[in-house]
Specification:
This protein has helices spanning 3-12, 55-68, 88-98, 115-121, 166-177, 198-201, 208-216; strands at 32-37, 75-79, 105-108, 140-144, 147-151, 184-187, 221-226, 233-237, 240-244, 251-252, 264-265, 270-277, 281-288. The protein is of the alpha/beta class. The protein has a single domain, classed as Purple Acid Phosphatase, chain A, domain 2. β8 (233-237) and β9 (240-244) form a beta hairpin. α3 (88-98) crosses α4 (115-121). Residues 1-12 and 15-27 have low confidence and may be disordered.
Length: 307
């Protein structure tokens, strides 16, 4: 082995020096962290979803994970299917659980939700009434630190699939144009793209192309973040990135056969963390929900890689 090779091996097996990790430019402001939960499917009294899934327990574990993290989120967004059947009893049970979170929470309905019941139970969430009351679509835009969160209600009452009406698209276009310099997350329940999971694509977003045309006109849109699929799936969309978040409980089975039966699996649950940095932009992390034991070191007390 040559001296150069030996030196390279020695360097790679020791803890990196502080100078090696300081090449990034200094921050021009504080980072901002948004946690995205989705597809909670809470049932009243903690009843199990599909007679199997403890969705309330899963949400508690997700909250435990968020609260135990070294950096807690500044805002939590929940992108639909908050409860299972849209009853006020379910929303009240959900509200009791969410009171554990000390940071602002922004809610968005999915196809399992009921707008009127949601608004009644969360009547103090003023943003839910930005576009009206009752069964009016829940569109809103709120500032979250340096970011802007724009929620687009694509649910169709009584239907599993989604659609954004023409007035909703016009509202989105005007809302994005009104703050063109502010980095933005657009939130909706149904992903505006095909995933290859046939039975879910059959209940996707009808007019995704029209939405894509609007998004493409507004380059400040950093992400289009969605739920519905109970999986983390990513696609280019309208000049930006669209993605779905995993569920905190059950996941839709990953079967790309177009004729596959609609099923779910108890895979590891999770959520997304959208980390905004004023220099490095928006970075999204997929995080596992639950307790996976203690942290373990890569390096020993002498700074050498553990063998």
């Amino acid at each position: 082995m040559t001296t150069a090779a030996s030196s390279a091996m020695s360097t790679s097996s020791t803890l990196p020096s502080s100078s090696a990790t300081s090449a990034l430019p200094p921050a021009a402001g504080a980072p901002y962290l948004v946690a995205q939960l989705t597809d909670l499917h809470i049932k009243a009294g903690g009843k199990r979803s599909y007679r199997l899934v403890d969705t309330a327990g899963a949400l508690h574990r997700a909250i435990d994970t968020l609260l135990a993290a070294p950096q807690q989120p500044d805002t939590v967004i929940i992108t639909g299917d908050l409860v299972d059947f849209g009853s006020e009893h379910e929303y009240r049970f959900l509200r009791d659980i969410l009171q554990r979170l000390p940071m602002p929470i922004r809610l968005l309905p999915g196809n399992h939700d009921h707008r009127t019941s949601l608004r009644r139970v969360f009547a103090d969430h003023d943003y839910l009434f930005a576009n009206g009351d009752g069964e009016m679509p829940i569109h809103y835009a709120v500032d979250a630190g340096p970011l802007r969160l724009v929620a687009l209600d694509c649910t169709v009452p009584g239907q599993p699939g989604g659609r954004v009406e023409a007035d909703g698209l016009a509202w989105l276009d005007a809302t994005l144009a009104a703050a063109s310099a502010r980095p933005t997350l657009v939130m909706l329940h149904h992903p505006p793209f095909h995933t290859g999971i046939g039975h879910m694509d059959q209940q996707g977003l009808e007019n995704a192309a029209a939405l894509e045309a609007v998004i493409a006109r507004h380059p400040q849109v950093e992400r289009v973040v969605c739920g519905h699929l109970h999986r983390h799936i990513i696609r280019r969309f309208g000049g930006t990135i669209a993605m779905t978040a995993p569920g905190p409980a059950h996941q839709v089975a990953l079967d790309l056969d177009p004729q596959a039966v609609s099923r779910f699996r108890m895979e590891p649950p999770g959520f997304l963390l959208h980390w905004w940095h004023p220099v490095h932009g928006l970075v999204t992390h997929a995080a596992a929900s639950g307790d996976y034991g203690p942290l373990h070191p890569f390096y020993d007390a002498d700074g050498r890689l553990i063998d």
